[in-house]
Design goal:
There is one protein chain. The protein has about 575 residues and is an alpha/beta fold. It folds into two domains: about 325 residues, 4-Layer Sandwich (Purple Acid Phosphatase, chain A, domain 2), CATH 3.60.21; about 210 residues, Alpha-Beta Complex (5'-nucleotidase,  domain 2), CATH 3.90.780.10. Helices cover about 25% and strands about 20% of the residues. The chain is built from 15 helices and 25 strands. The strands form six sheets. A six-stranded mixed sheet has the order 4-3-2-1-13-14, covered by helices on one side. It has a six-stranded mixed sheet with strand order 6-7-9-10-12-11, covered by helices on one side. The protein has a five-stranded mixed sheet with strand order 19-16-23-18-24. Strand 3, helix 6 and strand 4 form a beta-alpha-beta unit. Helix 3 runs parallel beside helix 5 and helix 10 packs across helix 15. It is globular, with a radius of gyration of 25 Å. The protein starts with a helix and ends with a strand. The N terminus is likely disordered.
Amino acid sequence: MKSTTTRLASLGLAGSLAVFTALGGVPAQAAKDKRPGGKGGNPNLTSVQLLSFNDYHGHLEATDPPLNATLDPSQTPVGGAEYLSSKLTELRGEAPGGNSLTVAAGDLIGGSPFLSGLFHDEPSVESLNAMGLDVSSVGNHEFDEGTDELLRMQNDGCHPTDGCYFPDQPYQGADFQWLAANVVKKDGSGTLLPGTSIKNIAGTKVGFIGMTLEATPTLVSPAGVSSVEFRDEVQTANQQAQVLKKQGVKAIVVLLHEGGYQTGTYQGCEGISEPITQIAAQMTPEVDQIVSGHTHQPYVCSLPDPEGNPRLVTSAADYGRVVTESTLVINKRSGEVMRDRSTATNHLVERTTADPKQTAIINKWKSLSEVVGARVIGTVAEDILGDSSGDRGIETPMADMIADSILAATDGADEGGAQISFMNVGGVRASLRYAPKYTEGPGEVTYKEAYDVLPFGNRIVTVSMTGAQIEEALEQQYQPVEARGSRPMLALGVSEGFTYDWDASQPQGSRVVAGSMALNGTPIDPNATYRVSMYNFLAEGGDLFSAFTEGTDLTGGPEDLAALEAYLGANPGLTAPESRVGGL
């Protein structure tokens, strides 16, 4: 059991500082004055500042909007690598005794904007190295290009296809360590990457356990992670905490790429949801703080551990727009974290002072990307909306339009003969708007904009499926929380000509309205065979759409971005598709 007020009493500290709260801890100056190393500090205690963020996704440039008005009523402009780095430097300067560590909770790469994603996120890692990141968990997006590519990103080496972007400066790998405690190689040789990291700071040991969500195989192309298995987060943390304890580590922090949702401000913890609440309630009391991510939500929570003692559970939104500053107060004699004195606060990353090192990194990569990115590849006559930043549980015009582009690339007799195409809404990363996004004219779509929409490099495949199998796939848009985690409903965009009705009031497995599926007005025959195209992500069972793996006679096709570019070029003046689904 971790430290209590009784232990504090022996040090003359009982009742001194309030227990951290769900509203961001104690007032900043009071906390700093009373921390060990500040005014009135206690020599038997030491403080370690922990700066954390999550879901960076290679967002180097300061182009993201503010947090939504509920999270941040002030609507302060935030984010960008230049400003995130400066904020970290500023906060480190306030650390008592200079005792500071910077950590992250996954998705540092993958699903990235053009500037980083075009170069397989080498720019993202370079920016994080320059920020002084110490350690991070892996997230599901670290596996977007498979385990081999993740190991290259950790270690070094030029891209196996693209080669070295700067031949005189080959990629040097990450200076920080990615942790993957619950990602175990199937050959029995251990974890893909180290599961834990121990940092010696201020005369004490702080141990970190890094994990991604167990459901990661449902969120990435299964073929890329076929050599590993993803284990339960709680069981893994509990096991690894015991290993750390045997190594003399009593202060333990879990970096977990899984989270929840709340309805308060970025400092709040109002109505915090599963799965993070369930995870926190089951994770061993030996863990003193859970730094979480994945849901792109900011929160500062005090949630009870299995013994009923309060424990910090934090998250810092996304894209480098928020940094969490936690202060872990540690008893130097026992090595235990004094939770009664530990605090956490979320800080907005205001765009005030730009770090020139980050500016140089951005400019270096922009010089390579600008020529390729500015090429106009199509036009739209109006906004076509719907991307992963919104509701992934509804059909969107963008997802339907991408499904149309998949169909156009595969409907020829020599292309796969597709009749129906599907697109997962979560794979659509940006909308297409009529107003200029960069330097193009109104309605013009550049290669950079198209890349923003589809940054993953999926390949299109076509398979044969029966009508019954197609209906089964549609039913799998809904999965219970225990199966899919924090996003139980994940919708599919559908191509022109295919329609069906959805009734969410019916039980799981019976939500597609009987007899409603049709192709060009003709009812789908459950026993007939149809040619169906999609990205390999879905064909391999991504997002738990296992019905697609039942397809046969697979035919390969082009990459996602190439198909979208061809579709935009062949259909100038695109408009938003009308809905093809009734009731969804």
